[in-house]
Input
Amino acid sequence: MDKTVKEGLRDVVVANSSICIIDGQMGKLRYRGVDIDELARHSTYEETAYLLWFGDLPDREQLEEIEDRLVAHRELGESIRNVIKALPNTLHPMEVLRTIVSALPGCDVQAGDTGSSATIDKAIRLTAKLPTIVAYSHRCLEGREFVSPNPALSHAANFLYMLRGQVPTLLEAETMNLAMILMAEHDLNASTFAGRVTASTLSDMYSAITTAVGTLKGPLHGGASQWTMEMMLAIGTLENVEPYIKGELAAGRRIPGFGHRVYRKVADPRSVCFREKLKELCTAAGDMHWYNMAVRIAEVVYETSGLYPNVDYFGGPVLYSLGIPLNLFTPVFAISRIAGWIAHMIEQYDDNQLLRPLSNYVGIREKEYVALEARNGESMLVSA
Ligand SMILES: CC(C)(COP(=O)(O)OP(=O)(O)OC[C@H]1O[C@@H](n2cnc3c(N)ncnc32)[C@H](O)[C@@H]1OP(=O)(O)O)[C@@H](O)C(=O)NCCC(=O)NCCS
Output
């Protein structure tokens, strides 16, 4: 048996999939064959979710059906609202989201059913409720009143409405929709893979999504979006860009929003779409500060390290310009990525194989058991 370790699972292929094609050499990304640029320009999040789940773009009737079903499931039951209210206010919004997703099956009689019809029902419930959980818990924490979902608004526009209590402008709603499409899917990224591992044990979809949310939270994955904007705010001015970035790289620290496992020598196509949108937003606002900052940082990082921006980079100032608080950037990633996670759960349940790799054991092979009285080691516990 070949025990060669593929560190970080680099270049390991673990499944056949027909959801997302990434060309890391050419910087191309397609959902079910449809170019991300086309979706970003013409699609809605609801339509993209349908495409990801069912493999093809919906006709008008199918689109209306999925839109209606998503609207019908936006509300949270009282028991879930009470759990949110009871949580410590020291939790990060991603910790709140992870906790609440794991409580949702309490309100779903089909929770443990992994059959295809129940899976779609759960897909609708989860996708519809996640934005409400994020908006509701944020407003609770701020001591503000809950804003009920508005059935007249699209999925993306309704999220901004529930968060801010005001119907967004057309440009804001379009921007949120674009952001959600761009973040909806990306093949076997760490959170999707982690979720598929959970689904592969035939555990339920809520457990798999809880796993995925916990994995997305890390700063090397979705957590980078908050970290990116924090860095831009810390740099503050164009003059500070060069000394800050060069200082960080010289100290061996990572620059958030740069580098990618798949796009090595080319820009992440999602960052290109976000960059265009940021320019449009700054131009409309008559203030190019964040666009100029973001472009200058990207130039200095590239000149110094050859790294390209990833999805979290230009996405950060875009979300910031929508007035989304920094600690909600990763939850916004989660409420977008839910569509992709679910597409992968459907694929996993349809043709399941338990995902269970091996390690190459490098520890001591055989050791005598020594009785407790005869042991005399130093404490390995670090004192608090
Ligand atoms: C995304 C990421 C985890 C990919 O990691 P990976 O495929 O495992 O690549 P590695 O961590 O092996 O990086 C390869 C080299 O580039 C360097 N590198 C990668 N990303 C870097 C970054 N953002 N800043 C500085 N150096 C970076 C590494 O230090 C490493 O250098 P070395 O070979 O001299 O040790 C990595 O690029 C990163 O940490 N980026 C910052 C966090 C981020 O933006 N995450 C969101 C991803 S969408």
Observations:
- The pocket of coenzyme A is lined by residues 8, 220-221, 224, 254-261, 305, 307, 310-312 (CB under 6 Å).
- Residues 81 and 136 are 8 Å apart (CA to CA).
